[in-house]
Amino acid sequence: xxxxxxxxxxxxxxxxxxxxxxxxxxxxxxxxxxxxxxxxxxxxxxxxxxxxxxxxxxxxxxxxxxxxxxxxxxxxxxxxxxxxxxxxxxxxxxxxxxxxxxxxxxxxxxxxxxxxxxxxxxxxxxxxxxxxxxxxxxxxxxxxxxxxxxxxxxxxxxxxxxxxxxxxxxxxxxxxxxxxxxxxxxxxxxxxxxxxxxxxxxxxxxxxxxxxxxxxxxxxxxxxxxxxxxxxxxxxxxxxxxxxxxxxxxxx
Length: 252
Prior knowledge:
5-stranded mixed beta sheet, 28% strand, D-Maltodextrin-Binding Protein, domain 2, 2 domains, Fructose-1,6-Bisphosphatase, Chain A, domain 1, alpha+beta, 7-stranded mixed beta sheet
């Protein structure tokens, strides 16, 4: 089944590239929270495929659907994760697609069209980047660690904004990155480019695909207080097993 979805997301990526290499309109859902016409085009393309071929699946997508209760299979979709980047012709954006069975991840796909990087995972079968198996880093020393994070759109008005956390962690590690896509950050942690990732106030479609890819690559995933991760929760930490406790201490 995953092969069908990989082809679907590849085709959706072509739509994204059409927009990225051309012209498009950008709107704002809220202050500092843009959406482009290609967010909608990609979403409609994927949703149409799912509804035609898997009519009993629920769909929970960023732009145009609501969570379906009591459905055995649910698709979590972010048609463009990294819309700000896409809108400014910055190549760090992706399509994030996940299939959950009874609230448990079964398939995760994250595709970066410009870089032609496709991260995939099936439950119990490992994680892959363009068909090559991946795993988390082996870094043990925080001073040599590279991490990633992001900030919520309402950081300018909300007290829960991750700014203090950023300053605390930055002083203890080799470096921090902020690429503007949580799904990419999680996948780059899964393949060892980053040693860890954390963020606050994400939505389920931002994380649903990436967490399976990270888990199958050997990552530990919790909330920033160390409690069990919740797809509908308020925070996430993804890291290798050797840095997780140190990172928790910095963020508590």
